[in-house]
Amino acid sequence: MTKEIRDLTPKYTVPGIEREAAGRLIGLLRMRLHALNDLHLTLKHVHWNVVGPHFIAVHQMIDPQVDRVRDMADDVAERLAALGGVAQGTPGALVSERTWDDYAIGRADAIAHLAALDLVYTGLIEDVRTSIKEAGQIDPATEDLLIEQLRDLEQFQWFVRAHLENASGALATDTARFEEEAAAKGAQLG
């Protein structure tokens, strides 16, 4: 699905960055902000809708992730504003500009949710890595911000994957391509 490309060139930006380059960073950070706001809501959805024997472990594991993701979103929004952009944090902006679908799992077993969440983290981490490469060509401060966030997101995925990994190191959901498929495979583990 192709989204409308807007000219996000600011009227001013931080010293040492051309306005057009800042506009590219603003566009990149705008999508990171949407992704982080979406992840925050998805994590709370999982927190509220997880059931089964692993309920309390997953329920308690998710909240610190929610808190850190909210902090990440704040950092991205503030960097976006410092570059001269507008941090669009409304649900309408997120829904109209995102390039992904809503999280597909409702009330489900903890392991099923974690299996689906693993795919969410994979997509997000891949996008952050792409953003780091682009930001690195323009601005080391924005690149550094994204690298710091990448480390935390990868750690959160590791926490999730620890529940999905067998003793030989294989992920039960390694061939899943869609959240529903991953959740079904995860439910078989639970």
What does this molecule look like?
The chain has a two-stranded parallel ribbon. The two termini are about 35 Å apart. It has a single domain, classed as Up-down Bundle (Ferritin), CATH 1.20.1260. The chain has helices spanning about 20-50, 55-80, 90-95, 110-135, 140-160, 180-190; strands at about 50, 110. With about 190 residues, the protein is mainly alpha-helical. Helix content is about 65%, strand content about 0%. The radius of gyration is 18 Å and the shape is elongated.
Strand order of the largest sheet: 1-2
Overall number of domains: 1
The residue ranges in which pLDDT falls below 50 over 5 or more consecutive positions are: none
Structural class: mainly alpha
Distance between the termini: 35 Å
Count of β-strands: 2
- Identify the overall geometry: elongated
Task: Tell me what portion of residues adopts beta-strand conformation.
Answer: under 5%
Order of helices and strands: HEHHEHHH
State Rg.
Answer: 18 Å
The CATH architecture designation is: Up-down Bundle
In DSSP terms (H or I, runs of 4 or more residues), the helix count works out at 6
**Percent helix among the residues?**
55-70%
Largest sheet: 2 strands, parallel
Organism: Streptomyces lannensis
Protein name: DNA starvation/stationary phase protection protein
Family: Belongs to the Dps family.
Domain Ferritin/DPS: 28-167
